[in-house]
Amino acid sequence: MKKHARTVIGAVLATAGLLAGTSAMAGKTLDQIKARGQIVCGVNTGLAGFSAADSSGNWSGLDVDHCRAVAAAVLSDANKVKYVPLTAQQRFTALQSGEVDVLARNTTNTLNRDASLGLHFIGANYYDGQGFMVPKGKITSAKQLKGATVCVQSGTTTEKNLTDFSRANKLNLKPVVFEKVEAATGAYFSGRCQAYTTDASGLASVRAKEAKDPAAHLVLPDLISKEPLGPMVRRGDDEWFAINKWVLNGLIEAEEYGITQANVDQMKSSDNPQVGRMLGATEDLGKHLGLDKEWLARAIKTTGNYGEMFERNVGPKTAINLPRGLNNQWNKGGLMYAAPLR
After folding, report:
1. Which of 62, 75, 38, 188 shows the shortest CA–CA distance to 128?
2. What is d(CA 85, CA 93) in angstroms, rounded to the nearest whole number?
3. What is residue 27's predicted lDDT score, i.e. its pLDDT?
4. Which of 51, 67, 132, 236 is most buried (most C-beta within 10 Å)?
5. Structural contact between residues 180 and 98, judged by C-beta atoms closer than 8 angstroms
6. Domains of the chain (ranges plus CATH)?
Protein backbone atom coordinates (compact mmCIF):
# COMPACT_ATOMS: atom_id res chain seq x y z
CA MET A 1 0.00 0.00 0.00
CA LYS A 2 1.34 3.41 -0.92
CA LYS A 3 2.28 5.81 1.84
CA HIS A 4 -0.27 8.40 0.68
CA ALA A 5 -3.11 5.84 0.74
CA ARG A 6 -2.12 4.68 4.23
CA THR A 7 -2.11 8.32 5.40
CA VAL A 8 -5.57 9.01 3.97
CA ILE A 9 -7.03 5.81 5.47
CA GLY A 10 -5.45 6.61 8.82
CA ALA A 11 -6.95 10.11 8.79
CA VAL A 12 -10.39 8.74 7.93
CA LEU A 13 -10.21 6.17 10.72
CA ALA A 14 -9.02 8.79 13.20
CA THR A 15 -11.88 11.10 12.22
CA ALA A 16 -14.39 8.24 12.57
CA GLY A 17 -13.03 7.46 16.00
CA LEU A 18 -13.25 11.11 17.01
CA LEU A 19 -16.86 11.31 15.83
CA ALA A 20 -17.77 8.11 17.62
CA GLY A 21 -16.30 9.46 20.82
CA THR A 22 -18.03 12.80 20.42
CA SER A 23 -21.49 11.20 20.55
CA ALA A 24 -20.97 10.29 24.19
CA MET A 25 -19.31 13.53 25.34
CA ALA A 26 -21.24 15.52 27.92
CA GLY A 27 -20.12 19.00 26.78
CA LYS A 28 -18.70 21.81 28.84
CA THR A 29 -22.08 23.36 29.74
CA LEU A 30 -23.41 20.10 31.10
CA ASP A 31 -20.18 19.56 33.03
CA GLN A 32 -20.59 23.00 34.62
CA ILE A 33 -24.23 22.32 35.43
CA LYS A 34 -23.40 19.00 37.09
CA ALA A 35 -20.62 20.61 39.11
CA ARG A 36 -22.97 23.44 40.14
CA GLY A 37 -25.88 21.08 40.73
CA GLN A 38 -28.27 23.50 39.08
CA ILE A 39 -29.46 24.79 35.70
CA VAL A 40 -29.70 28.58 35.38
CA CYS A 41 -32.69 29.47 33.22
CA GLY A 42 -33.44 32.92 31.82
CA VAL A 43 -37.18 33.66 31.84
CA ASN A 44 -39.66 36.51 31.40
CA THR A 45 -40.05 38.98 34.25
CA GLY A 46 -43.67 37.86 34.39
CA LEU A 47 -45.90 36.54 31.60
CA ALA A 48 -48.65 34.28 32.93
CA GLY A 49 -48.79 30.95 31.13
CA PHE A 50 -45.19 31.17 29.95
CA SER A 51 -43.04 32.20 32.90
CA ALA A 52 -44.31 33.89 36.03
CA ALA A 53 -43.67 33.58 39.76
CA ASP A 54 -46.40 33.39 42.38
CA SER A 55 -46.37 35.20 45.74
CA SER A 56 -44.16 32.45 47.19
CA GLY A 57 -41.60 32.74 44.42
CA ASN A 58 -42.60 29.51 42.68
CA TRP A 59 -42.24 29.72 38.89
CA SER A 60 -44.62 28.14 36.39
CA GLY A 61 -45.44 28.32 32.69
CA LEU A 62 -44.75 26.71 29.34
CA ASP A 63 -41.18 28.08 29.20
CA VAL A 64 -40.55 27.19 32.84
CA ASP A 65 -41.62 23.63 32.06
CA HIS A 66 -38.85 23.39 29.47
CA CYS A 67 -36.25 24.17 32.10
CA ARG A 68 -37.85 21.76 34.58
CA ALA A 69 -37.90 18.98 31.99
CA VAL A 70 -34.24 19.53 31.10
CA ALA A 71 -33.30 19.55 34.79
CA ALA A 72 -35.13 16.25 35.25
CA ALA A 73 -33.33 14.80 32.23
CA VAL A 74 -29.80 15.86 33.21
CA LEU A 75 -29.90 16.21 37.02
CA SER A 76 -32.75 13.81 37.87
CA ASP A 77 -34.47 16.64 39.75
CA ALA A 78 -36.81 19.17 38.13
CA ASN A 79 -36.40 21.54 41.09
CA LYS A 80 -32.70 22.09 40.50
CA VAL A 81 -33.31 25.23 38.45
CA LYS A 82 -32.46 28.83 39.24
CA TYR A 83 -34.75 31.26 37.41
CA VAL A 84 -33.33 34.61 36.29
CA PRO A 85 -36.04 37.08 35.20
CA LEU A 86 -34.88 39.12 32.20
CA THR A 87 -36.33 42.01 30.21
CA ALA A 88 -36.42 41.78 26.41
CA GLN A 89 -33.33 44.01 26.21
CA GLN A 90 -31.36 41.97 28.76
CA ARG A 91 -32.11 38.46 27.53
CA PHE A 92 -29.56 37.94 24.75
CA THR A 93 -26.64 39.49 26.64
CA ALA A 94 -27.43 37.30 29.65
CA LEU A 95 -27.19 34.17 27.51
CA GLN A 96 -24.15 35.33 25.55
CA SER A 97 -22.23 36.18 28.72
CA GLY A 98 -22.98 32.85 30.40
CA GLU A 99 -25.18 34.38 33.11
CA VAL A 100 -27.82 31.80 32.11
CA ASP A 101 -27.44 28.32 30.59
CA VAL A 102 -30.63 28.45 28.54
CA LEU A 103 -33.00 31.26 27.59
CA ALA A 104 -36.64 30.15 27.76
CA ARG A 105 -38.39 33.48 27.43
CA ASN A 106 -41.11 33.56 24.73
CA THR A 107 -38.48 34.60 22.18
CA THR A 108 -39.14 34.71 18.42
CA ASN A 109 -36.85 32.82 16.07
CA THR A 110 -35.62 35.17 13.34
CA LEU A 111 -32.72 34.98 10.89
CA ASN A 112 -30.93 37.90 12.54
CA ARG A 113 -31.15 36.40 16.03
CA ASP A 114 -30.26 32.89 14.94
CA ALA A 115 -27.35 33.88 12.68
CA SER A 116 -25.71 36.93 14.25
CA LEU A 117 -25.89 36.69 18.05
CA GLY A 118 -23.79 33.58 18.63
CA LEU A 119 -26.93 31.78 19.79
CA HIS A 120 -29.05 28.86 18.58
CA PHE A 121 -32.79 28.29 18.74
CA ILE A 122 -33.55 24.70 19.70
CA GLY A 123 -37.02 24.66 18.11
CA ALA A 124 -40.47 26.16 18.61
CA ASN A 125 -42.46 25.43 21.75
CA TYR A 126 -45.25 27.85 20.76
CA TYR A 127 -46.32 29.15 17.33
CA ASP A 128 -47.75 32.63 17.70
CA GLY A 129 -48.50 35.85 15.83
CA GLN A 130 -48.55 39.51 16.83
CA GLY A 131 -51.90 41.11 17.56
CA PHE A 132 -53.55 44.12 19.19
CA MET A 133 -55.75 44.64 22.23
CA VAL A 134 -58.13 47.60 22.52
CA PRO A 135 -60.93 48.68 24.86
CA LYS A 136 -64.20 47.23 23.61
CA GLY A 137 -66.01 49.71 21.40
CA LYS A 138 -66.05 50.68 17.75
CA ILE A 139 -62.61 49.23 16.84
CA THR A 140 -62.94 45.69 15.46
CA SER A 141 -59.89 45.54 13.18
CA ALA A 142 -56.28 46.67 13.49
CA LYS A 143 -56.63 48.60 10.24
CA GLN A 144 -59.10 50.93 12.01
CA LEU A 145 -56.34 52.16 14.34
CA LYS A 146 -55.23 55.01 12.05
CA GLY A 147 -53.26 57.59 14.02
CA ALA A 148 -53.63 55.66 17.28
CA THR A 149 -51.11 55.55 20.11
CA VAL A 150 -49.92 51.98 20.73
CA CYS A 151 -48.07 50.76 23.83
CA VAL A 152 -45.22 48.40 22.98
CA GLN A 153 -42.14 46.92 24.65
CA SER A 154 -38.72 47.92 23.33
CA GLY A 155 -36.06 45.47 22.16
CA THR A 156 -38.65 43.12 20.63
CA THR A 157 -39.73 41.95 17.18
CA THR A 158 -43.08 43.43 18.24
CA GLU A 159 -41.71 46.97 18.01
CA LYS A 160 -40.31 46.42 14.51
CA ASN A 161 -43.44 44.66 13.28
CA LEU A 162 -45.57 47.56 14.50
CA THR A 163 -43.52 50.02 12.46
CA ASP A 164 -43.69 47.80 9.36
CA PHE A 165 -47.46 47.28 9.71
CA SER A 166 -48.08 51.00 10.17
CA ARG A 167 -45.99 51.94 7.13
CA ALA A 168 -47.41 49.21 4.87
CA ASN A 169 -51.00 50.20 5.67
CA LYS A 170 -50.41 53.98 5.94
CA LEU A 171 -51.83 54.05 9.46
CA ASN A 172 -49.42 56.56 11.04
CA LEU A 173 -49.47 54.61 14.31
CA LYS A 174 -47.68 56.29 17.21
CA PRO A 175 -45.64 53.83 19.30
CA VAL A 176 -45.31 54.55 23.03
CA VAL A 177 -42.26 52.49 23.98
CA PHE A 178 -41.39 50.94 27.36
CA GLU A 179 -38.45 48.80 28.43
CA LYS A 180 -40.48 46.55 30.75
CA VAL A 181 -43.66 44.76 29.79
CA GLU A 182 -45.28 45.72 33.12
CA ALA A 183 -44.81 49.41 32.26
CA ALA A 184 -46.28 48.93 28.79
CA THR A 185 -49.37 47.10 30.03
CA GLY A 186 -49.82 49.51 32.93
CA ALA A 187 -49.80 52.44 30.53
CA TYR A 188 -52.39 50.77 28.31
CA PHE A 189 -54.77 49.94 31.15
CA SER A 190 -54.43 53.48 32.55
CA GLY A 191 -55.58 54.88 29.21
CA ARG A 192 -52.28 56.35 28.05
CA CYS A 193 -52.45 54.32 24.82
CA GLN A 194 -55.38 53.48 22.60
CA ALA A 195 -54.04 49.96 21.96
CA TYR A 196 -51.47 47.51 23.24
CA THR A 197 -49.55 45.17 20.95
CA THR A 198 -47.56 41.98 21.55
CA ASP A 199 -47.86 38.30 20.64
CA ALA A 200 -51.47 37.12 20.71
CA SER A 201 -50.67 34.69 23.54
CA GLY A 202 -49.25 37.58 25.54
CA LEU A 203 -52.39 39.64 24.94
CA ALA A 204 -54.53 36.80 26.29
CA SER A 205 -52.25 36.47 29.31
CA VAL A 206 -52.25 40.19 30.08
CA ARG A 207 -56.02 40.54 29.65
CA ALA A 208 -56.69 37.57 31.93
CA LYS A 209 -54.23 38.52 34.68
CA GLU A 210 -53.99 42.32 34.68
CA ALA A 211 -57.28 43.78 33.46
CA LYS A 212 -59.74 44.77 36.18
CA ASP A 213 -62.48 43.65 33.80
CA PRO A 214 -61.13 41.32 31.09
CA ALA A 215 -64.45 41.47 29.24
CA ALA A 216 -63.92 45.21 28.70
CA HIS A 217 -60.98 44.55 26.39
CA LEU A 218 -60.94 42.98 22.94
CA VAL A 219 -58.08 41.10 21.30
CA LEU A 220 -58.51 42.00 17.64
CA PRO A 221 -58.58 39.08 15.17
CA ASP A 222 -55.77 40.47 13.01
CA LEU A 223 -52.36 38.77 13.23
CA ILE A 224 -49.66 40.87 11.58
CA SER A 225 -46.66 38.54 11.86
CA LYS A 226 -45.33 35.02 12.35
CA GLU A 227 -43.84 34.48 15.81
CA PRO A 228 -42.34 31.01 16.32
CA LEU A 229 -41.32 31.16 19.97
CA GLY A 230 -38.70 28.90 21.50
CA PRO A 231 -35.76 28.44 23.88
CA MET A 232 -32.18 29.37 22.95
CA VAL A 233 -28.69 28.24 23.94
CA ARG A 234 -25.19 29.53 23.17
CA ARG A 235 -23.34 28.36 20.10
CA GLY A 236 -20.18 26.34 20.61
CA ASP A 237 -21.57 23.53 22.73
CA ASP A 238 -23.25 21.05 20.42
CA GLU A 239 -23.96 18.60 23.24
CA TRP A 240 -25.96 21.10 25.31
CA PHE A 241 -27.80 22.23 22.18
CA ALA A 242 -28.68 18.59 21.39
CA ILE A 243 -29.96 17.91 24.93
CA ASN A 244 -32.33 20.89 24.86
CA LYS A 245 -33.44 20.12 21.30
CA TRP A 246 -34.24 16.49 22.01
CA VAL A 247 -36.00 17.15 25.31
CA LEU A 248 -38.37 19.42 23.37
CA ASN A 249 -38.76 16.86 20.55
CA GLY A 250 -39.24 14.09 23.08
CA LEU A 251 -42.09 15.85 24.89
CA ILE A 252 -43.82 16.58 21.57
CA GLU A 253 -43.40 12.99 20.36
CA ALA A 254 -44.57 11.65 23.73
CA GLU A 255 -47.96 13.26 23.11
CA GLU A 256 -48.15 11.71 19.65
CA TYR A 257 -47.59 8.24 21.12
CA GLY A 258 -49.92 8.73 24.09
CA ILE A 259 -47.20 8.77 26.76
CA THR A 260 -48.38 10.90 29.68
CA GLN A 261 -47.19 11.99 33.09
CA ALA A 262 -49.49 9.40 34.64
CA ASN A 263 -48.74 6.39 32.44
CA VAL A 264 -45.05 6.79 31.57
CA ASP A 265 -43.95 3.94 33.85
CA GLN A 266 -46.54 1.54 32.46
CA MET A 267 -45.69 2.53 28.89
CA LYS A 268 -42.14 1.22 29.32
CA SER A 269 -43.58 -2.25 28.73
CA SER A 270 -45.42 -1.16 25.56
CA ASP A 271 -45.24 -3.42 22.51
CA ASN A 272 -44.68 -0.34 20.34
CA PRO A 273 -40.96 -0.35 19.44
CA GLN A 274 -40.82 3.44 19.17
CA VAL A 275 -42.22 3.86 22.69
CA GLY A 276 -39.67 1.35 23.99
CA ARG A 277 -36.85 3.32 22.36
CA MET A 278 -38.04 6.65 23.72
CA LEU A 279 -38.38 5.44 27.29
CA GLY A 280 -35.11 3.51 27.38
CA ALA A 281 -36.77 0.11 27.70
CA THR A 282 -35.29 -1.40 24.53
CA GLU A 283 -32.53 1.05 23.51
CA ASP A 284 -30.24 3.54 25.21
CA LEU A 285 -30.68 6.78 23.26
CA GLY A 286 -29.33 8.78 26.20
CA LYS A 287 -25.74 7.72 25.52
CA HIS A 288 -25.73 9.92 22.40
CA LEU A 289 -26.51 12.94 24.61
CA GLY A 290 -24.17 12.15 27.49
CA LEU A 291 -27.20 11.09 29.57
CA ASP A 292 -28.61 7.83 30.92
CA LYS A 293 -31.38 5.85 29.24
CA GLU A 294 -34.11 7.19 31.58
CA TRP A 295 -33.59 10.86 30.65
CA LEU A 296 -36.81 11.32 28.66
CA ALA A 297 -38.96 9.20 30.97
CA ARG A 298 -37.96 11.50 33.85
CA ALA A 299 -38.75 14.60 31.79
CA ILE A 300 -42.22 13.30 30.88
CA LYS A 301 -42.89 12.26 34.47
CA THR A 302 -42.00 15.81 35.55
CA THR A 303 -44.00 17.97 33.13
CA GLY A 304 -46.17 15.58 31.16
CA ASN A 305 -46.05 15.55 27.37
CA TYR A 306 -46.29 18.72 25.29
CA GLY A 307 -50.08 18.59 25.18
CA GLU A 308 -50.29 18.31 28.96
CA MET A 309 -47.93 21.26 29.33
CA PHE A 310 -50.04 23.33 26.94
CA GLU A 311 -53.34 22.50 28.62
CA ARG A 312 -52.00 23.12 32.14
CA ASN A 313 -50.38 26.47 31.37
CA VAL A 314 -52.31 28.22 28.59
CA GLY A 315 -55.13 25.93 27.41
CA PRO A 316 -58.89 26.52 27.28
CA LYS A 317 -59.37 25.46 30.92
CA THR A 318 -56.94 28.12 32.18
CA ALA A 319 -57.49 31.85 32.59
CA ILE A 320 -55.32 32.39 29.47
CA ASN A 321 -57.85 30.32 27.47
CA LEU A 322 -55.83 29.69 24.30
CA PRO A 323 -56.94 27.09 21.73
CA ARG A 324 -54.38 24.55 20.51
CA GLY A 325 -54.61 25.89 16.94
CA LEU A 326 -51.20 25.83 15.27
CA ASN A 327 -49.77 24.26 18.42
CA ASN A 328 -51.68 21.04 17.94
CA GLN A 329 -50.00 17.85 16.73
CA TRP A 330 -49.22 17.66 13.00
CA ASN A 331 -51.77 14.85 12.56
CA LYS A 332 -54.48 17.05 14.13
CA GLY A 333 -54.01 20.09 11.92
CA GLY A 334 -51.20 21.78 13.84
CA LEU A 335 -47.48 22.37 13.38
CA MET A 336 -46.11 20.28 16.25
CA TYR A 337 -44.09 17.70 14.33
CA ALA A 338 -41.25 16.16 16.31
CA ALA A 339 -38.18 14.72 14.65
CA PRO A 340 -38.20 10.98 15.46
CA LEU A 341 -36.29 9.71 18.48
CA ARG A 342 -34.40 6.73 17.11
Report:
1. 62
2. 13
3. 74
4. 67
5. no
6. 28-127+229-332 (3.40.190.10), 130-225 (3.40.190.10)
